[in-house]
Amino acid sequence: MSMLELRQVSKVYGHGAAEVRALRDVSLEVAPGTMLAVMGPSGSGKSTLLTIAGSLEEPSSGQVLVANQDLAVMSRNDKARLRRQLVGYVFQDFNLLPGLTAAENVSLPLELDGVRARKAREAGLRALDGLGLADRASNYPDQLSGGERQRVAIARAVVGDRQLLLADEPSGALDSGNAETVMRMIHAACRQGVAAVVVTHDAQLASWADRVVFIRDGRIVDQTAPAAGPESLLAQER
């Protein structure tokens, strides 16, 4: 079973002379427990692919299935529920709520899904601790560095029982040490059955993936299984 499947998905913005084709007949599948890296130049359609995969945008044509559910036949409320329960996002601009602390930002999705506040906070604190942010849990976003805000966003994306993780340049604001910590956390989530799609320009980050897709001008131009990377070393340790 695929956790995410795109079938001949295209996305067009504008009309006539102003028309921009962001995606062109993109088809791919991501199974539970696997990580897909998406690489390509700026403007190639990588971020559009993520927003469509997560039901934040609708394709102009084609079909998108998440956990075998066809997004085209779902109501807006059903899509919102699916995003809240199954999908974790890591955005380039973090999308943290400025009036909430780091811990509150991480635990909020759980509370919205009916988890009691105390249990949600405990889960949020564990996620922050896993990313080295236990001592920053009470800080507000404007009191955090860019790298710290990115790690809070990642903690929010992986907390709870998410089944699909969509990450847009998750290491973009991080140094190499913290980038490795983030990838270990995403990889650990995949080992627990989560499907992950990670957009990146970083070949070293992509080496953690089970498969790499290359996209240019909205089309998949190549895809490959990378050479043994950091995840193979983890497998040898088990």
Q: Which descriptors would you attach to this protein?
A:
single chain, 238 residues, alpha/beta, Rossmann fold, 10 strands, 36% helix, globular
Record the SSE blueprint.
Layout: E1 4-13, E2 20-30, E3 35-39, H1 46-53, E4 61-66, E5 69-70, H2 76-86, E6 87-90, H3 102-112, H4 117-130, H5 146-158, E7 164-168, H6 176-191, E8 195-199, H7 203-206, E9 211-216, E10 219-224, H8 230-237
Parallel strand pairs: 3-8, 3-9, 6-7, 7-8
Antiparallel strand pairs: 1-2, 1-4, 4-5, 9-10
Helix pairs in contact: 3-4, 3-5, 4-5, 5-6
Question: What's the helix-strand series?
Answer: EEEHEEHEHHHEHEHEEH
* Mean pLDDT over the full residue set: 89
- CATH H-level superfamily title: P-loop containing nucleotide triphosphate hydrolases
**Level of helix content?**
25-40%
CATH topology call:
Rossmann fold
- Tell me the structural class: alpha/beta
**Number of E-state strands:** 10
Rg over alpha carbons: 18 Å
Report the CATH architecture.
Answer: 3-Layer(aba) Sandwich
Give a quick account of the main beta sheet: strands, pairing sense, barrel closure. Answer: 6 strands, mixed
The protein's oligomeric status is single chain
Count of domains: 1
Question: How far do the termini sit from each other?
Answer: 26 Å
- Helical stretch count? 8
* Strand fraction: 25-35%
Strand order of the largest sheet: 6-7-8-3-9-10
Shape verdict: globular
Low-confidence stretches: none
> At the first level of CATH, what is the class?
Alpha Beta
